[in-house]
Recover the amino acids of this structure.
């Protein structure tokens, strides 16, 4: 029997409507449980070689390494650093070899996907960056309120948030607070 | 909203209020009615109220001076219930709503019979500097017992709210190409020019709607009314993507294009009208590439006796109440002016049916003929009479006389609102500059990313203001827009220089809020306070909630005259944020009380909650301090029970919070060699080693164990407290000092849940959890590491001990840590496995003599904590050079020692100071050292024990010492010193 995965977002994070009840929800949120996440970080001078290795192994085209050239399954968190989803750590380590560090973060990071018509107003509360300068497909290592958070822009009004697991309950609580005025629908 | 109440001073037409929506409110418990769109000031004036409050120092009756944010007098308290009242709202900025309850401030007894008015009778004995001069007598005792309590009672404006602020606030990150501060016609014109050029523009307007005075002044734009023209512009700006934020005050300008603004979202609405879940106010942290200061200008008064009487008002304020709100503040109006601008107001009052007399200070003023307006040239207002409201005005000068009047309007000239242009000198050094032509300070030369538009530039006519707006738009890359033709333009001219009239003295007020008079400024100059900053502090002119918006320039002009200097030489005091008062709560935003900072939770937090844990904060983490079991009397009882169970059989504790860093790469061992004091190249795969890190200054930084998991793969643990600092230190050293090292590392603190099994049965329990793994003393010896699997997930087994028992730490991915924890409890049940918290851990590690953050407090060397042997002589490492400082080998240097209470039941107080005599004196000349950690009860010693740092530590072993706590009534505790390694000093248990 496989052990039960514990919900890291806490007891208040329950499916359904929260905050403002009238009208359609301004914000939709979902948590992907059981996602395989591997963090890779190139050794000095090896970033381009690491990207080439990732392309050869998984077909990911990460361009020249700018944060805007990431992909949904390869989110850039810093120079030569990515969060890869969908491949386990052994496979990734085998692909990058001594070019890069590869560590499992499947338990270490929690991914929330948020979307909806009020998403810009919500992010204006949580994140100091200017959405206007932020193309679809780009990632930013920033903050969710006071909490370190990597944002990935999936679409015009759809974002992935990666936060440290131990912070997830606070993120969940603060997301409920911040989106209450818009109405939040948790999947 | 049913019956309409009379509003005697409200005209039956005019104004931009909504006459279809009467609004009922109270002031000092009396019920009044105004209209939607009224400020509290306009609504009360409409009802004939003249007295709004009492002045700060002399408790003089005061009315309304201005009509906007500059108002110094009419400060009121808003009461929304016992836990929700706030003081010092400016009546001129407070919008009325149905059911609003307001109160006047700063009086004892009714507003019209304030007992503190006695101060006014003695005002000649309360000059500037009175407090400084008087309260020397009697010395400090008199100050504390007599003067201070009396002054405290009288001090302060309004009553502070006593309960926690019940509202919530939000912080918003707002971005723009250009921020336009001020939504008057100039600001909007510039904004339109920029928005049409494709810029993202945010316009912040502190009043309730966009448009400023153009809305009601009566001028027309291309034949349209001001209100219609403004509405067009607003629609165009929004259509071009611009954002208009009314009720939003830009309160501060900071470096690099950062601005602070507060948007008031609720204060003008009834509770029912507020959108649910929305914030009372929003703090906008605005980041803008460019800024337009379109902040307008604030009119100033003139110093003459009685110029603070209720009913004496700035001409622009009287005009605003008339034009914007349809409220006529007087029927017999005297208007004292130093420039042509006064005539526009005179004409408006005359047209509204008032009898107007203009007192024009200029003998050479051009003849102006306005129906029904009498003009007397070359005269000034010498004295206003009427304690509770103006009744008569004496004038003097070329002629003299006395006029019956129920209002006295003063047009003393305009001060551009330059405050924001002096908040930062980030991109330019200059401060506002004095323009001797305009008799006012204007913005300094602005940099490329800044522009000014409208009357803040010193422009006076609407046409000139529009021209500056066009220029500002052009400067910042805006599109040229056609300026409208302004008709029915109001007259303007430069003012005559008259700061105070002849004979102005101690009843001629400059700063109405602080009761600073013309005489006070002269006195300050006489007494040598010649710097404007000194004058400000001596007289209090320009302080408190209004920051002297109506008073500063006049005050420093008079200081210049009194000291025989130019105004430009005297300069201004420095304007600082906030421009107008803002609640502290709005700066905190969402982050208050439990939301002050995030919490970090272990994967088994919920289990601990359900099983009697009491938590303590460790940095951001919540960690179990102890678990209360049936029969436990108190926390110590629980901790001692947990300690005994662990030492006697088997304990389990959650160590998930330790910092964990994964290090990979061919140079990983070299990297560790440089970070830690001890050597790492010989550590075999499958082994852990205790490591010590120093700071550059040679003092101990952090400790922990690092394990070698593979040829080029290490796993470091740090203390919970220093995890982030260690990571930062590693990043810094790798990036700046050793970028050539082929190594990379990542924090995996959150990836792994970890528990410790400790006690004589720990091995048996571990064997049950991992039946396929050889965990015998040979298979997993002390400091051994095994990577294996648990239910298909990676599990790491470390034979390390903090408690001094035979112990193991096991790490598994956090997602399944809860399940693993339950499995461990089940496996250990036969040995009565007992969860223990930080308190029990603390007892055990003190018994063992292990150091933690309390000891590694940034002041200790390796030797001080007995770890001097952990230095490899074969290599260099961070802190090496400085760790060889002479001071570190001084025999007098305090080193770690163990202390044991003299008898059971005696306490040792943490932080106590150690002495060798019970006789005293207990001071720094005799102190030997200090206590860092205390176990209030050690089962091993059957009494309290402690770790301390004392001079010549080893020499005191076996001897009696005394711990004195100066913060606990100098209680003296007798203790005996010994080695800090109370428990199993030869490590037989951990190696077993």
């Amino acid at each position: 029997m496989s052990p039960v995965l514990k919900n890291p977002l806490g007891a208040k994070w329950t499916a359904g409507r929260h905050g403002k009840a009238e009208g359609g929800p301004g914000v939709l949120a979902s948590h992907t449980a059981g996602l395989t996440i591997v963090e890779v970080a190139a050794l000095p001078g090896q970033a381009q070689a690491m990207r080439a290795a990732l392309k050869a192994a998984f077909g990911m085209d990460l361009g020249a390494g700018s944060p805007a050239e990431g992909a949904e399954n390869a989110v850039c968190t810093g120079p030569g650093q990515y969060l890869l989803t969908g491949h386990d750590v052994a496979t990734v380590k085998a692909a990058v070899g001594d070019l890069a560090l590869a560590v499992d973060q499947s338990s270490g990071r929690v991914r929330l996907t948020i979307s909806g018509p009020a998403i810009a107003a919500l992010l204006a509360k949580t994140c100091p960056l200017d959405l206007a300068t932020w193309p679809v497909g780009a990632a930013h290592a920033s903050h969710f309120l006071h909490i370190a958070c990597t944002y990935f822009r999936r679409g015009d009004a759809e974002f992935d948030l990666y936060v440290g697991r131990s912070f997830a309950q606070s993120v969940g609580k603060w997301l409920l607070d911040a989106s209450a005025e818009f109405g939040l629908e948790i999947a | 909203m049913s019956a309409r109440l009379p509003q005697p001073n409200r005209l039956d037409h005019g104004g931009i209020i909504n006459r279809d929506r009467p609004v009922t409110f109270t002031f000092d418990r009396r019920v009044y009615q105004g209209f939607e769109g009224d400020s509290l000031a306009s609504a009360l004036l409409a009802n004939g109220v003249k007295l709004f409050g009492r002045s700060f120092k002399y408790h003089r009756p005061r009315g309304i001076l201005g009509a906007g944010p500059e108002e110094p007098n009419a400060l009121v308290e808003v009461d929304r219930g016992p836990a929700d009242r706030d003081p010092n709202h400016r009546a001129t900025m407070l919008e009325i709503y149905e059911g609003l309850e307001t109160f006047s401030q700063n009086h004892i007894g009714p507003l019209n019979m304030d007992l503190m008015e006695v101060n006014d009778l003695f005002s000649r004995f309360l000059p500037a500097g009175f407090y400084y001069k008087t309260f020397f007598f009697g010395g400090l005792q008199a100050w504390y017992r007599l003067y201070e309590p009396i002054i405290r009672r009288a001090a302060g404006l309004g009553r502070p709210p006593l309960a926690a602020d019940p509202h919530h606030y939000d912080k918003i990150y707002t971005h723009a190409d250009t921020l336009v501060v001020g939504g008057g016609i100039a600001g909007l014109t510039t904004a339109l020019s920029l928005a049409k050029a494709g810029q993202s523009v945010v316009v912040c307007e502190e009043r309730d709607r966009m448009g400023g005075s153009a809305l009601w002044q009566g001028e027309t734009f291309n034949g349209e009314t001001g209100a219609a023209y403004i509405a067009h512009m607003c629609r165009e700006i929004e259509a071009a993507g611009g954002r208009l934020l009314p009720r939003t005050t830009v309160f501060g300008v900071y470096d690099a294009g950062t601005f602070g603004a507060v948007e008031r979202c609720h204060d003008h609405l009834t509770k029912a009208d507020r959108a649910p879940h929305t914030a009372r106010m929003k703090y906008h942290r605005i980041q803008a590439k460019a800024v337009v200061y379109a902040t307008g200008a604030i009119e100033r008064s003139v110093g003459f006796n009685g110029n603070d009487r209720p009913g004496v008002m700035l001409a622009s304020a009287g005009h605003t109440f008339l034009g914007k709100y349809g409220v006529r503040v007087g029927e017999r109006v005297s208007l004292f002016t130093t420039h042509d601008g006064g005539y526009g107001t005179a004409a408006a009052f005359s047209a509204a049916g008032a009898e107007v007399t203009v007192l024009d200070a200029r003998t050479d003023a051009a003849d102006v003929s306005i129906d029904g307006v009498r003009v007397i040239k070359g005269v000034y207002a010498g004295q206003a009479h009427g304690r509770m409201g103006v009744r008569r005005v004496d004038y003097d000068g070329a002629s003299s006389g006395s006029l019956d009047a129920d209002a006295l309007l003063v047009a003393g000239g305009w001060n551009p609102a330059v405050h924001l242009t002096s908040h930062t000198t980030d991109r330019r050094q200059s401060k506002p500059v004095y323009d001797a032509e305009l008799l006012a300070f204007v913005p300094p030369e602005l940099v490329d990313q800044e522009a000014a538009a409208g009357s803040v530039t010193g422009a006076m006519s609407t046409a000139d203001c529009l021209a500056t707006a066009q220029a500002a738009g052009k400067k910042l890359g805006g599109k040229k827009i056609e300026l409208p033709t302004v008709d029915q333009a109001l007259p303007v001219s430069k003012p005559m220089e008259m700061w105070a009239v002849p004979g102005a003295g101690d009843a001629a007020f400059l700063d109405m809020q602080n009761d600073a008079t013309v005489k006070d400024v002269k006195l300050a100059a006489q007494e040598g306070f010649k710097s404007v900053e000194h004058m400000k502090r001596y007289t209090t002119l320009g302080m408190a909630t209004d920051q002297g918006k109506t008073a500063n320039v006049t005050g420093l002009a008079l200081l210049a005259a009194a000291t025989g200097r130019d105004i430009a030489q005297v300069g201004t005091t420095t304007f600082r944020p906030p421009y107008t008062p803002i609640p502290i709560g709005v700066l905190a935003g969402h982050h208050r009380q439990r939301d002050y900072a995030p919490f970090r939770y272990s994967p088994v937090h919920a289990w601990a909650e359900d099983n009697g844990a009491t938590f303590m904060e460790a940095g951001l983490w919540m960690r179990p301090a102890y678990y209360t079991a049936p029969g436990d009397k108190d926390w110590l009882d629980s901790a001692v029970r947990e300690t005994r169970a662990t030492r006697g059989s088997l304990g389990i504790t959650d160590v998930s919070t330790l910092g964990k860093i994964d290090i990979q790469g061919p140079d990983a061992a070299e990297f560790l060699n440089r970070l830690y004091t001890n050597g790492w190249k010989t550590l075999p795969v499958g082994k852990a080693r205790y490591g010590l890190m120093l700071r550059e200054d040679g003092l101990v930084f952090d400790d922990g164990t690092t394990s070698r998991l593979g040829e080029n793969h290490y796993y470091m643990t740090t203390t919970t407290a220093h995890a982030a600092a260690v990571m930062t230190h590693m990043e810094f050293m790798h990036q700046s000092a050793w970028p050539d090292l082929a190594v990379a590392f990542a924090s995996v603190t959150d990836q792994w849940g970890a528990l410790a099994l400790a006690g004589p049965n720990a091995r048996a329990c571990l064997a049950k959890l991992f039946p396929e793994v050889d965990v015998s003393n040979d298979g997993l010896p002390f400091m051994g590491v095994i990577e294996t699997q648990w239910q298909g997930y990676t599990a790491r087994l470390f034979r390390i001990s903090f408690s001094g028992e035979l112990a193991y730490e096991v790490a598994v991915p956090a997602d399944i840590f809860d399940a693993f924890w339950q499995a461990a409890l089940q496996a250990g049940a036969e040995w009565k496995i007992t969860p223990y918290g930080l308190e029990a851990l603390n007892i055990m590690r003190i018994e063992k003599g292990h150091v933690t953050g309390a000891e590694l407090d940034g002041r200790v060397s390796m030797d001080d904590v007995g770890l001097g042997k952990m230095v490899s002589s074969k290599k260099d490492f961070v802190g090496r050079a400085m760790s060889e400082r002479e001071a570190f080998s001084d025999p007098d240097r305090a080193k770690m020692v163990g202390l044991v209470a003299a008898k059971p039941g005696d306490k040792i107080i943490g932080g106590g100071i150690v002495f060798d005599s019970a006789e005293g004196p207990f001071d720094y000349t005799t102190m030997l050292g200090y206590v860092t950690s205390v176990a209030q009860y050690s089962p091993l010693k059957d009494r309290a024990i402690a770790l301390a740092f004392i001079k010549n530590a080893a020499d005191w072993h076996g001897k009696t010492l005394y711990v004195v706590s100066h913060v606990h009534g100098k209680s003296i505790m007798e203790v005996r010193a010994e080695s800090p390694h109370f428990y199993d000093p030869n490590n037989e248990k951990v190696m077993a």
